[in-house]
Amino acid sequence: MTVSRGREFLSIPGPTTVPDRVLAAMHRPAVDIYADDLFDVTLSCLADLKTVFGTGGRTYIYAANGHGAWEAALANCLSRGDRVLVLESGMFASAWGEMAGVLGLDVEVLPGRPGRAVDAEALAARLEADRAGEIEAVMAVQIDTASGVVNDIPALRRAIDDAGHDALYLVDAVASLACMPFEMDAWKVDVAVAGSQKGLMTPPGLGFLAAGDKARARHESADLVTRYWDWTSRDGPEHYMKYCGTCPEHLVFGLREALDMIAEEGLDNAARRHALLAGATRAAVARWSEGGALAFNAVDPSERSNSVTTVRTPGFDPAALLAFCKERCGVVLGVGIGPELSGGAFRIAHMGHVNAPMTLGTLGVIESALIALGIAHGAGGAQAAAESLGAALAEPREAAA
Ligand SMILES: *Cc1c(COP(=O)(O)O)cnc(C)c1O
């Protein structure tokens, strides 16, 4: 018996649910790539991306995914043999570091602690020890989608400043942009990257990058730059070169609509919505964890991200739970990824175009699965989620007249 008819919930941390408005905006014939109105759409998206990144710097749109934006960040402001310091906090930070090694950079990893965010003091200590200033860039991830940990990007900036170090600060905001605050200029981030298919609610296929003045100055002498990623050629007046070739038109039409939706809701409200839905998810996971068979991967409650919750499953094989949720109930959950979590965790996304019924529905289905599969768990997780959300949304009562 299944209860999976109806709209399937895609509760994975990317790609996320694409709003009908975004799908509709893409449903149109191709247009002339040399037309002025397409150029205007590009310029308006580049301008609105500045708002989303919180920067007065330059923004770029690549026909690429997040990995493309990663490569763009490294290639545009570094040179062969430069040392970069990767702040380990989960699989994504590590994978970005591996890419740096393949590009010919000298990669040093600041070791992380399992299930923990980057330690700002450890970063400061490492940079203070670098008296010769050999480290050219520090690479951090805001929300590591594998571990479910959120890093404190402004605190890591302060650590760099406290050490008096001149390294570039490169930040991956792929799984956090438009889901939680990101203030590129205020936090003195030199390069930030994102992708279309997470908080930005657009199908996969676009990579975004924002670059500040310091990064652009380094760009002048960077020898890893190749034509496709090159900021300079994309900065020129020719629309065709903004994409180094044909504009990925339909994705850009979708992005335009998604940016309108973000502006309508407001970045602050979007961050608050993510915080509430994450809070409801954490209330459920905390309750279920009382049974001992599952647990938060992020050890410290203050380091649990607002866009994805990674749940370790020491007491059972998560494959059966995932299959039950998808095939019997129509909810697709994320698998555990990375050496420590593959086969031993699952992930619940609360990222992008997501609302209360989607999150509460997902949590209710997980609880049904725990019951149906006989997995030991603290009862009442779905109830705890409803209570969390209800309390957060309660209007302050007027004093009785
Ligand atoms: C998804 C993700 C990436 C990679 O993006 P792709 O589009 O899959 O290449 C990088 N970093 C983080 C934090 C992510 O969540």
Description:
The chain is α/β, with parallel strands linked by helices and 401 residues long. The chain folds into 2 domains: 9-16 and 267-393, Aspartate Aminotransferase, domain 1; 31-263, Type I PLP-dependent aspartate aminotransferase-like (Major domain) (Aspartate Aminotransferase, domain 2, 3-Layer(aba) Sandwich). The radius of gyration is 22 Å and the shape is globular. 50% of the residues are buried. Helix content is 42%, strand content 16%. A 7-stranded mixed sheet has the order 2-10-9-8-5-3-4, with helices on both faces. The protein is built from 14 helices and 14 strands. The termini are far apart. Pyridoxal-5'-phosphate (PLP) is lined by residues 14, 65-67, 92, 141, 144-145, 172, 174-175, 195, 204. Pyridoxal-5'-phosphate binds at residues 14, 65-67, 92, 141, 144-145, 172, 174-175, 195, 204.
